[in-house]
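Render Chitinase domain-containing protein 1 in 3D.
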Amino acid sequence: MLKEMMLLTLLVLFIYAALGTITPGNKVKGKSKQLKLKNGPQNVSVYDLDLIEAEPSAKDILINCQAYFKDTSLRNFNNTVLGYVTPWNSQGYNVAKIFTKKFNIISPVWFQLIKQAGKYSIAGDQDIDSSWITEVRRRGDSIDVLPRFVFEKFNDRDFSLLLSQTTERAKVSEVIINICLQYGFEGIVLEYWSQLTGRVDNKFLINLAMDISKALKEYNLKFVLVIPPMRKELPNAFSEKELDELYSYVYAFSLMTYDYSSVHRPGANAPLYWIKQTIENLVPTNSRNFNEKRQKILLGINMYGNDYTPDGGGPIVAHQYLDLLRHVKKRLSYDEHDEENFFEIRTTSGRHYVFYPSLYSINKRIRLAQELKVGISIWELGQGLNYFYDLF
């Protein structure tokens, strides 16, 4: 009897011991499910890792998205690349420094042209970061820093005078030139067309661009004009006719081929077929001076996405996208018509219908830019994922 009790006790102890070894093992296994995220420079690129997939897994994106190939001087796209940087997104400043050699033009969104008491002046100079400019120039072989300017606090009379009188355009040009010379900028990016189109005849908008361009050229300063994409609601906003008149005056056209959809019409940010149609309408294949015109167009690529919800939703950038992506268990869907990735999830905050760039969708747009012989403009640096820049 004693012997049987001892055997029973030993058996119980053995079972407890076995359970003791299994339990920690289970905990370790649970921890192993936590993703080991990569970050910073790596010895391999997204090409080496075969990450450019039509339907990438959420897991692969989360693991690799903040890493990038260590040789950031390697370029896979040799036409002009412009990258915008905004003062409200500090990550963009870092991206511009890390990947400087991927870009030809960096455009900090700093300045507003304003009119007060009958005089033109510049607002936004408090955002100028001289040390950052110096660092970007040090890292880039031949980088141009062309800050973006917009018109603000202009009433209808102010615009009327500016558009109708050459003396007023000369005054605006002088203000722009002075700040370029003061800070050593190589020129400017000017955005006004979308603001004014449909309100005045396009010939006035053409004259404004021509006169500012002529004034800048006297000081060897470059002029990039921001232009709207093809829109059904504004079919003649900027067409082949306007481009024909302006291409010899303009260093490049920054084409805003994004924001195709909205909370009122959810969907892709920039359908590929729409981008292609927009460029082919601006410069048809039978166009005179075809190559010169095409190389001046900078196809716009958005680095932000959109999160559509029952309440509307809105634009999202990298960290917001990754927070949503963590709810995705499988692979992202691919819209073969618009050629963008998306996913649908339900969280404690409700349903989400998310469109955001992927390696695959960006690669498709870079290849389209190569096919159409155009450059690229990126809105904006810091909104996307680090490994996107392996593609450029």
